[in-house]
Design goal:
Blueprint lengths: L14 H17 L13 E6 L5 H12 L3 E6 L11 H8 L5 E6 L4 H6 L6 E6 L5 H15 L5 E6 L6 H10 L4 E6 L8 H9 L4 E4 L2 H4 L5 E4 L10 H7 L18 E3 L20 H19 L16
Parallel strand pairs: 1-2, 1-3, 3-4, 5-6, 5-8, 6-7, 8-9
Helix pairs in contact: 1-10, 2-10, 5-6, 5-10, 6-7
The structure holds N-carbamoyl-L-aspartate (NCD).
Length: 318
């Protein structure tokens, strides 16, 4: 991921670039302890194009841009000329006239890739249908490292909707670059797609698949819970059948490690009971907070303001 490039998929960056993002995010986390604003992006505009609901992703990108001294051009819902039939590449060309960087979420898979065909500014994929959500995965990587203190010798369980969950797809792909064992826990109808499993296999990660959480909970270091993605089901009867198969509650965690981190990209429905929020192992609201630091890092790197770890010192003076 170089200055000026797009972030569409986990395939767009390597392990060194991920490392720079983590380091930069750490720096912003530290700086925000004493400052409200770090003026690295003064004069820059971020367009936020959200054609699907979003709370955390949209607000964290907007908050990140404002805390970096930049401005935002927000678009929500069916209010653009896409509704009149304008193509994604044309829209990409148009936003390039007004913004310096854009983030887009859309229900159609690969729609953000289409927008990029016309765009002259960096574009971040904030979720394209059931495909990918790479910035969430960088938040997840940061959270795993912070909560577990390492990115190796971990057993990470992914639970719930592994078929349609785009955050899970990107996060599995990203974590498979590290020496991590995977446990995929899902209903038979919601298993990880073959294309994502192929990446796990290609990276020679150890993995197992099961539909029994209680058989594996005691060996897991990070339990990544996902919402069953109702909006992606073609058959709502099928959704009804699988929607409450897994519910993590206090009882579920009795046999789990003391050092477990329970993560979730949120929003959560019934899959994590509210009583778990009081457990010190609940890490999902930390993930929300980390979203700000990681997105500040992403915007700064994609706009060429941080190019390497040595460049981080300069941020202290702003
Ligand atoms: C996720 C998404 O939109 O893919 N949410 C998020 O960005 N934090 C997960 C979800 O909606 O279940």
């Amino acid at each position: 991921m170089k200055a000026g490039s797009h972030l569409l998929s986990i395939d767009d960056f390597g392990i060194d670039e991920a490392h720079l993002i983590l380091k930069t995010a750490q720096k912003f986390e530290k700086l925000l302890e004493t400052k409200r604003r770090i003026n690295v992006l003064h004069g820059y505009n971020l367009a936020t194009l959200f054609f699907e609901p979003s709370t955390r992703t949209k607000l964290s990108f907007e908050s990140a841009m404002l805390r970096l001294g930049g401005s935002i051009l927000p678009v929500v819902g069916q209010t653009t000329s896409l509704e009149k039939g304008e193509s994604f590449p044309d829209m990409g060309r148009v936003i390039s006239s007004y913004a310096d960087i854009a983030v887009m979420r859309h229900p159609k898979e690969f729609s953000v890739h289409e927008l990029c065909k016309g765009s002259n500014i960096p574009v971040i994929n904030a979720g394209d249908g059931a495909n990918e959500h790479p910035s969430q995965s960088l938040v997840d990587l940061y959270t795993v490292q912070k909560s577990q203190g390492r990115l190796e010798n971990l057993t990470i369980g992914f639970l719930g909707d592994l078929k349609y969950g785009r955050a899970a797809h990107s996060t599995v792909k990203l974590l498979s670059r590290y020496p991590i064992n995977f446990v995929f826990i899902s209903h038979d109808k919601l298993k990880l797609p073959e294309s994502v499993l192929k990446v796990v296999k290609d990276n020679k990660s150890e993995y197992e698949e099961t539909d029994q959480l209680h058989d594996v909970i005691n060996k897991i270091d990070v339990l990544y819970v996902t919402r069953v993605q109702k909006e992606r089901f073609l058959d709502l009867d099928e959704y009804e059948e699988v929607k409450t198969v897994f519910q993590v509650n206090r009882g579920t965690l009795i046999d789990a490690k003391k050092s477990l981190s329970v993560m979730h990209p949120l929003p959560r429905l019934e899959e994590i009971q509210r009583e778990v929020d009081l457990d010190p192992r609940a890490t999902y609201f930390d993930q929300v907070q980390n979203g700000l630091y990681v997105r500040m890092a992403l915007l700064t790197i994609l706009l060429g303001k941080v190019r390497n770890v040595d460049g981080l010192k300069a941020l202290e003076k702003l």
